[in-house]
Specification:
Layout: H1 6-15, E1 23-26, H2 34-43, E2 50-54, H3 59-68, E3 72-75, H4 80-100, E4 111-114, E5 117-120, E6 125-128, E7 131-134, H5 137-148, E8 154-155, H6 156-162, H7 173-186, E9 196-199, E10 203-206, H8 212-215
Parallel strand pairs: 1-2, 2-3
Antiparallel strand pairs: 4-5, 5-6, 6-7, 8-10, 9-10
Helix pairs in contact: 1-2, 2-3, 3-7
């Protein structure tokens, strides 16, 4: 099925609830652009895998696409074989998750627990006592990188290279916006983060074990 504009895509995906295995989403759509469509999908808890097509692979497009909820990106121009390979990768991951979920709905080997919260990397979920949050693949990849590098200041450029595979200079505000959303999942008080801390002039630090003096506000 092909939608000629963003509004039509949202209508099929969210209003008509048409089932799709994956969505190839162009950034430059008439009306609602691809970013707005992806955000609408995720806000409606539609987690169909999204492959975002970006103009010339601009880092700004890539980062905004990930922040909107895209699972992968492909710069234009591209070869059909590459497009199909990327789509098949997303579909294989989705099929694997569906196969695993009935057998192990709450516990898998690929998970990390801290401060009463569990990140399930294989099921793309964050679980806490009072909530369960679905995560995009890129959110999971960033969390995985943070978990593997605890208590260390990680620069924005390091995140760009090692998580999003971007090697060009770009506006890092997209990363900041991404982190703001992750804090809503991880922090009891997102306005005063304890676990996903800002390191002024550098980037961010993931702190799994918060000391008592930090909790009381004495840094």
């Amino acid at each position: 099925m092909v939608a000629a504009d963003g509004e039509s895509a949202v209508d099929w995906l969210l209003k008509k609830h048409a089932p799709f295995d994956a969505v190839v989403l162009d950034v430059m759509l008439p009306g609602m652009d691809g970013f707005a469509v992806a955000r609408a999908m995720r806000e409606a808890q539609n987690y169909t895998p999204v492959l975002m097509l970006t103009a010339r692979g601009r880092p700004e497009d890539v980062l905004e696409g990930f922040a909107a909820g895209a699972d992968d990106y492909l710069p234009k121009p591209f070869e059909l074989s590459i497009l199909l390979a990327r789509l098949n990768g997303l579909l294989r991951r989705t099929q694997w998750l569906r196969a695993q979920a009935p057998e192990q709905p709450a516990h898998t080997a690929d998970e990390y627990t801290f401060a009463g919260k569990t990140i399930d990397f294989s099921l793309l979920e964050l679980r806490a006592a009072d909530k369960q949050v679905r995560l995009t693949m890129m959110e999971v990849e960033l969390l995985r990188y943070l978990v593997h590098n605890p208590d260390r200041a990680i620069s924005r450029s390091e995140i760009l290279e090692n998580v999003w595979r971007l090697h060009e200079d770009t506006d890092t505000r997209a990363i900041d916006n991404f982190v703001v959303r992750l804090r809503r999942y991880l922090e009891d008080d997102p306005a005063h983060p304890l676990h996903l801390q800002t390191v002024r002039g550098v980037g961010y630090r993931f702190v799994p074990d918060v000391k008592e003096d930090t909790r009381s506000g004495r840094l």
